[in-house]
Amino acid sequence: MCSFYHGPWRFWSDVPWNIRGRMFDEFRMKCAWPVEREVEVRGVFFNKCADRLSDMLREARNKKEMPGWITEDIWIKLTEYWASKEFGKKSELAKAACLSDKGGSMHTGGSISIGAHRRRLFKLNHISCHCINHISNFASV
Prior knowledge:
By secondary structure, the protein is mainly alpha-helical. The chain is built from 6 helices and no strands. It has helices at about 15-30, 40-65, 70-80, 85-100, 115-125, 130-135. It starts with 16 loop residues before the first helix and ends with a helix. The mean pLDDT is about 80. InterPro entries: Probable_transposase_24 (IPR004252). It holds the Pfam family Transposase_24.
């Protein structure tokens, strides 16, 4: 994902569709799945990319360090946005929602190993187990 980050995209929804398509094409070269699962795999891939982009930007924002995969001009635009009143309001609303008893979500599931996830994914979807590694590691490409 990092090698495709060429704009001040704050959210996955900001990433242009042609860039998303190129990311998926690169992922497709590394993994195999039944053709009838293409739409499902694409959806899961894009959801994982959305989560990863959010995580990576949050980490960069919290560290206040420009990561190597973001150019200086993009970093300046992102830091300006993070310092804005608009971002501050959204951040406070999100924090309040997470902390509230009403409407908040609480993680109640148990932990499960990546190996167990791989076996379940393969059993349910017949997707090659090595694909999980590529989804997880795609951000460092």
